[in-house]
## 1
Amino acid sequence: MATDGEGQARGPVNEQVVANMYASMRTEVNQIYSKITELEMEVSEHSLVINAINPLDPSRRCYRMIGGVLVERTIKEVLPAVQRNKEGIEEVIARLHEALEKKKNEISEFEAKYKIRIKKSDEVKDESGKKEGNAQGVLVGPAGASE
């Protein structure tokens, strides 16, 4: 994708390359979203632990999992470590949000540059939805079928 002898700018040459680049960019965005969600769940778990042990006596025994090994400590030792971990995870989440915004802007510029439009799933379902139906739910057998 370098410039050729005539001085044309670098960039994708055909629709397939553009589509592949666009798909990879969308995949990266989805990966960032999933990582943010995973880390937010960890922050939630850390908050639950902090709220549970905070009102307890600091000299009370508690157990903490470190690298797959359960270690006995006191609340006085564990609480600051859990709080530091939570703060660290929150910082990572903030950086991931920044990366997500940059990637979204990059995708928007890419869409504008190559005039990419996304078809809504409703437009695709119009034809197939009439033939097959749109019922959703649980399939239940007739009453007394288990007897």
## 2
Amino acid sequence: MSAAELEIRRFGHEDLPEIRQTIIDLHAAAAGPDRDDDFKKKFPWFVDHWGSNADFACAIAYDGGDAVGFAYGAPAVEGREWWRESLETPPEKSRTFSYSELAVHPEKRKQGVADALSRALLEGRPEDLAVLLVDVKHPRVQSLYESWGFRKVGERQPFPDSPVYAVMLAELPLP
């Protein structure tokens, strides 16, 4: 299977009841059976939180009938672009898409699925920028996003019990 052979379907807020369990199951598979961290337990709350946004966007990759990965996010509230605090001189254009989650089934990694999902999610977005967070303990993931046009602009710990994340920003459309 190559990324070109995937079927990528797009979904919105109104589709959440149909895709919610698929997203949760894929996230659990991507995290692995041995990983029993707090985020894995809290993940359904995040799905519901992001999915409740009327402009929620999700892309799910299918290999045959099997879901093998997803990416989702939603536009940031204009004027509340939290990433701005990471830059001395923020760009003039600031409409931002918050890229919240990306997960690929372990058996489908390193086959271009993450790239295909990210591009499908961000393609045609009306926003000027995309922002995401990457755990600073995962430099390979950060490098992957950099290869797609994101750049690290700072670090942030959004919750007291969360890891420290690299704040990554990209201009849309991606190169």
## 3
Amino acid sequence: MGRPTDYTSELADAICDRLAADESLVSICRDDAMPSTTTVHRWRQERPEFRANYARAREEQGHTVADMLGDIRRMVLSGKIEPAVATAAASIAKWEAGRRAPRDFGDKLELAGDPDRPLVHKIERQIVRPANSDS
């Protein structure tokens, strides 16, 4: 029996659950019971409900990765991993969490100023008349 190519909600849910648990799509699709990555990408293009669930799973994956930062800290404090390795792993985890769940972990741009004088962008338009104009 070959890989599944027909869409089922059970198969789609299994893929999304594994993604949310921080398994890569490549790893999931290595499983003979799962469709190929090409099939999954086609489902994302053709099926709006799967596209929405897939996007939610990727966002949840960001939360899973962010949760791993605590594990990394505990491993450093217990001496299980070197601080330099932890720094690299934490940096990658923070980057990935920020990309997967940008509303919660992404870089934020905040403009601050005097609260009594809000930032206002004023555009003035001037009309320049030619020098030899009669008006």
